[in-house]
Specification:
The chain is of the alpha/beta class. It has a single domain, classed as TIM Barrel. It has eleven helices and eight strands. Helix 2 links the parallel strand 2 and strand 3. Helix 1 runs parallel beside helix 11. The radius of gyration is 17 Å and the shape is globular. Bound molecules: phosphoenolpyruvate. The site of phosphoenolpyruvate has 13 residues, from strand 8.
Length: 255
């Protein structure tokens, strides 16, 4: 049984004080939610404080990125052991904003995935095609390559991993993929994982949809058989909005 994840990616938003205010607001709003995990991904600067505030609660935390070495002369970078130290359980890797604006490659993403797993952290590996690639009929091929390269030489035995399918054209645009198209790609990703790793692994891995998810469309996505939750940017910045998404997701899971 895959417990769905509703993860909020705050991107470059919120100071420490604003992050803690959010946590204090969302904790009671989500206290009764069962069967859906809520995960917050604050900016690096707020991780430690948020991690402290979330200790012993029902909400988990992830970072938005990581570097692959444990320590060394890498000015400005943050390692998996450092993330662990803040109370993070997850780290997003390969987000399209990093792939496109910061020129992160599949090889970088692969190193990040491996280093997280080695440290006992869960990667949230983002994959997704651009509008141009979809219109050219290449969406599946692009996602397949991102998966193959991102998970190259990864030993998934006994490890945990989350995949987020985020079509680039749907991120922050207000234009979400249809739930049928998202299911089609996510079903395809699961098939690919079964072929590359094993059926057991493919059935265990949570695959999220991301791209303009809001309270008014989460139920459509959650009703699809292979969609195990959502990675949410804009609509995760207000506690009431993220809590409402989690409540509606729970309604589908328990309904
Ligand atoms: C994201 O940043 O991963 C994302 C899906 O953003 P938004 O929900 O704003 O489209």
């Amino acid at each position: 049984m895959r417990i769905p994840i509703i993860a909020g990616n705050w991107k470059m938003h919120k100071t420490v004080a604003q992050s803690l205010e959010f946590v204090d607001e969302i904790l009671p709003l989500t206290a009764e939610i069962k069967g859906v995990k809520v995960v917050l991904c604050p900016p690096f600067t707020a991780l430690y404080s948020v991690g402290q505030r979330l200790q012993g609660t029902h909400i988990e935390m992830g970072a938005q990125d990581v570097f692959w070495a444990d320590e060394g002369a890498y000015t400005g970078e943050i390692s998996p052991p450092m993330l662990k130290d803040t109370g993070s359980k997850y780290a997003i890797v390969g987000h399209s904003e990093r792939r496109h604006q910061l020129k992160e490659t599949d090889e970088d993403v692969n190193q990040k995935v491996k280093s997280l797993l080695q440290a006992g952290l869960w990667p949230i590996l983002c994959v997704g095609e651009t509008l141009e690639q979809r219109q050219a009929g290449n969406a599946r091929q692009v996602v397949k390559e991102q998966l193959e390269e991102g998970l190259k030489d990864v030993d998934t035995t006994g490890t945990d991993l989350v995949i987020a399918y985020e079509p680039v054209w749907a991120i922050g645009t207000g234009v979400n993929a249809s739930s049928e198209d998202a299911q089609d790609m996510i079903g395809f990703i699961r098939q690919e994982l079964a072929g590359k790793f094993s059926q057991e692994m493919a059935e265990r891995v949570r695959i999220l949809y991301g791209g303009s998810v809001k309270a008014n469309n989460i139920e459509e996505f959650m009703s699809q058989p292979d969609i195990d939750g959502a990675l949410i940017g804009g609509a995760s910045l207000q506690a009431e909005s993220l809590a409402e998404i989690a409540r509606r997701a729970e309604g589908i899971v328990n309904g």
